[in-house]
Amino acid sequence: MFNGSRKYSPLPSSPSSSRASSSSSSSSLPAAPRRSPRALQRHSSLLSQYSSLLESYTEGEIRQLISALVERYSQAMNSGGHELPLFPRAGSRRKRARARHKPCALKELEVSVSELGLGYESDETVLFRYCSGTCEAAVRSYDLSLKSMRSRRRIKKEKVRARPCCRPLAYDDDVSFLDAYNRYYTVNELSAKECGCV
């Protein structure tokens, strides 16, 4: 199907040599677009790689490959997707899948009181626990029905969430600290104690 013996050679660079070669050729060929030798070498190496790869397949195997690619592309287009590349990078796809399916869990971070954004100036550090992850497994009939009503535009203006969210179910004990002016404060419901899908 593909012949790997085709070779590309760079076009002459000097005008005198191009005149000599054009006068010696007997057939009148249309002028080919000029490319730099580097671009031709890169193109030639890619072509020879694919040519040698495809030569190892039978004609039936190549037809199967092409029909599988066309079918995959048409499925992506019919499912409402935009034009997707036929060969997405597997590494990025795996990373996205892992990020999507991390279950809802309790995490913690050591921060200064000033970083909490509550208006206190203090260099004291506290352990801030928070909830992070997805709630794919906790989707209920309510969530599916709500999503359907939103897609049909039966619910228009209200701000509703059509899937469960990873949120604190209980909070840690109150946190007390001294600010930069030696004033004592206590903040309640600051850190999560237990997380769940609500």
Automatic annotation (TrEMBL):
Which residue stretches does the UniProt record annotate as biased composition, category Low complexity?
Answer: 9-34
GO molecular function annotation: glial cell-derived neurotrophic factor receptor binding; growth factor activity; receptor tyrosine kinase binding
GO terms (BP aspect): glial cell-derived neurotrophic factor receptor signaling pathway; nervous system development
Localization annotation: Secreted
Query: What's in the keyword line of the UniProt record?
Result: Disulfide bond, Growth factor, Secreted, Signal
* InterPro entries the record matches: Cystine-knot_cytokine (IPR029034), GDNF_fam (IPR043401), TGF-b_C (IPR001839)
Report the residue ranges that make up the TGF-beta family profile domain in this protein.
93-198
Task: Please name the PROSITE patterns in this protein's record.
Answer: TGF_BETA_2
Task: Extract the Gene3D superfamilies matched here.
Answer: Cystine-knot cytokines
Q: Where is this region: Disordered?
A: 1-41
One cellular component term (GO) for this entry is:
extracellular region
Described by its record, this protein's role is as follows:
Growth factor that supports the survival of sympathetic neurons in culture. May regulate the development and maintenance of the CNS. Involved in the development of the neural crest. Might control the size of non-neuronal cell population such as haemopoietic cells. Acts by binding to its coreceptor, GFRA2, leading to autophosphorylation and activation of the RET receptor. Heparan sulfate-binding is required for signaling.
Q: How does it assemble?
A: Homodimer; disulfide-linked. Interacts with GFRA2 coreceptor and RET: forms a 2:2:2 ternary complex composed of NRTN ligand, GFRA2 and RET receptor. Also forms a 4:4:4 tetrameric complex composed of 4 copies of NRTN ligand, GFRA2 and RET receptor, which prevents endocytosis of RET.
Sequence similarity:
Belongs to the TGF-beta family. GDNF subfamily.
Q: What is this protein called?
A: Neurturin
Q: What is the organism field in this record?
A: Grus americana
